[in-house]
Amino acid sequence: MASLVQHVAGLACPPLSGASRRPGASLRPSALVCGTYVMSKDDKERERMRTLFDEASERCRTAPMEGIAFSPEDLESAVETTDVDTEIGSLIKGTVFMTTSNGAFIDIQSKATAFLPIEEACLLDIDHIEEAGIRPGLVEQFMIIDENPNDETLILSLQSIQQDLAWERCRQLQAEDVVITGKVIGGNKGGVVALVEGLKAFVPFSQVSSKTTADELLDKEIPLKFVEVDEEQARLVLSNRKAMADSQAQLGIGSVVLGTVESLKPYGAFIDIGGINGLLHVSQISHDRVADISTVLQPGDTLKVMILSHDRERGRVSLSTKKLEPTPGDMIRNPKLVFEKADEMAQIFRQRIAQAEAMARADMLRFQPESGLSLSSEGILGPLSSDEGQSSDE
Fold this sequence. Notes:
Elements: H1 2-9, H2 41-62, H3 72-82, E1 91-99, E2 103-107, E3 114-117, E4 139-147, E5 154-157, H4 159-176, E6 180-187, E7 191-196, E8 199-204, H5 214-217, E9 221-230, E10 235-239, H6 240-249, E11 256-265, E12 268-272, E13 277-281, E14 302-311, E15 316-320, H7 330-333, H8 335-340, H9 342-365, E16 373-375, E17 381-383, H10 386-393
Parallel strand pairs: 3-5, 13-15
Antiparallel strand pairs: 1-2, 1-4, 2-3, 4-5, 6-7, 6-9, 7-8, 9-10, 11-12, 11-14, 12-13, 14-15, 16-17
């Protein structure tokens, strides 16, 4: 093609006719110049894109909604229907999609951005938001508590919802007058601070059963009963003394309770039975002689014990596992069997106690036939039979 163009470009034009030529004009050869422009592949692509752009621009100018079923009215309506209530205090459902050292970002299916600060993640003081179970993908209900005026980000809270539930639970437990367990987390001159249902509660020293300091009770779990539950004043007052009195009332002679070995002494083991310390004397561990208590029990062991005696005034409780042995020495050889048979053996013990008491009462009434009572062969005190009455009359 290039050689052809060069060949054509070099041809001379034919001379003009005599009619058109001016007199005296000299004849000069004229050159005919012609050529062909060849577009490259990139040039063709650019040209195609320019054409498409021009067509799209023309459509946007003359018919912007042509071929689109979603109108501006539809868009506005969709935004209104998918928007959520962003009023302070309202509840909203969201999904955690990112966590940071300061909190978590929450997708609330709205044009507004939402953030959960770490201090609003739960009732407890935490260092990392993951400690409250907040991880990407978690779907939860949050409360809107504020809005950042700088970027209109909604501030969310889980703590506010949990507080409402915790106060409601405390009111319910107070109404039921039940004994609960609280962990001591601090204290001052007036009493100790315990964690109850995730809330900080105050226990005055006047309501603590034993004479101890706040440091001695720190990190310990103690039985408590509600005294005052006032959410408006943020007052939560409890009593350890009332809880102990309620627990001690359940400690009947011969009853079986679950306890934990707190410490070992040469003369026995101290057992925690629901916040009350009881002594399991070495002589009451087994019918067989126990030379070294540590060979049978260790601090932290959980076991069943039977109440032998309870001095409420002194706060002393005597315990026994010896009375629960199906056969002498089982506490040493097979303590598991002792715990399995504990309730059964305690029932037998209580029956023997009842019979002994009945026989003692019968001895007192032996010289009082006018009482109309007698003792059966099983040791049960009952009405005097007619035969017995006649023989006594004779």
